[in-house]
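Section 3.1: Structural characterization of target chains.
Under the original work plan, the team committed to producing a structural model for every single-chain target entering the pipeline before any wet-lab resources were allocated. The record below documents one such target. The sequence was received from the expression subgroup and is listed exactly as submitted; it comprises 344 residues.
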Amino acid sequence: MKLDKKEAATVINAIRFWEDSHKISPELAEELRNSYEVRSSNVDTIAWYAFISAVSCGLLAFGALVIDEKWIELLRKRWEFSEATVGVGFTLVAGVFVYLARRRKLKYPTSQISNESYTITIALSVAVAIAYWTRSLGLFNGDYAQPLLIATVVYGFIGGFLPSQLLWVAMLLSLTGWWAVQIYEWSGGGFRFAGMNYPLSMTLLGLLIWASSWLVEKIKPLISFERATYTFGLVLFLFAAWMLSIFGNYDDLGRWSAIKQGTLWYWSAGFTVVLAALTAYAFRSKNDTLRDICLVFFLANIYTRYFEYFWDRTNKGIFFAILAFSFWWVGRKAEQWRNQEKTA
């Protein structure tokens, strides 16, 4: 059995604990230590980057063929196909690849990255099928809300059926897009709904998706999507909150430009407090995902606040020197904590 480094570290600690507490004999402990292998991280890294490259190239090819060349429309008009016919065709293509992906996952359950490559075609085929179905049924008249809502349901269903992390993320992206378009419609073509502008509305949506990861974890068929839901919701929540700290609850660019940024200090302070609390909790609970994402936004927050309040008032060299020293100190402390944990 092959384990990655984190899994191997957990197994080693468990075996050591059992051996020290005399729950297992030294001979059995040694046998357990020899019963697994540590998977090469370099191979995993290469496979992961290859998968990202495949996704990127697939999206670029789709964009070049469908958006730039419009080959689907050219073929449809040349052969006088109806929009419903194109929708049926791409639905069948998606169905065939769903079948192939399902069969491959059952046959090679551990080849996650290779299996996910099939879902690129599924995601793109479903997108084209939904676009033509909604147009043929008169559901799309410059209104993207209904197609995006349908895409959310379809991606979620297929993602849970396979299961596929990529399609689950596509479902979350479609849900976010639907919420943004729906707010625009509910506001009557404006950018404020229920007293909230876009950043505030997206902050609440991100918080809702982030919180739903705990519910996803409790549902056995969806438990594999807990990490993707958690990460997506957290990133959306912090990104929207970061935008909220810049624009406040203003929905008009002209009005926002006319005020001093200092009048929105409470949004900045609130975002900073939330980041500090989440970062402290991440270090205390040893939540690597929460820690890393919070630190990225903490850096973005520092730079944002500097450009807002101190760009014209302080010497740039002195500011960045202080910033460099502070990050060096944080890195040094983090290294000391890590060494202490290893010693313990």
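The longest strand covers residues 2-3.
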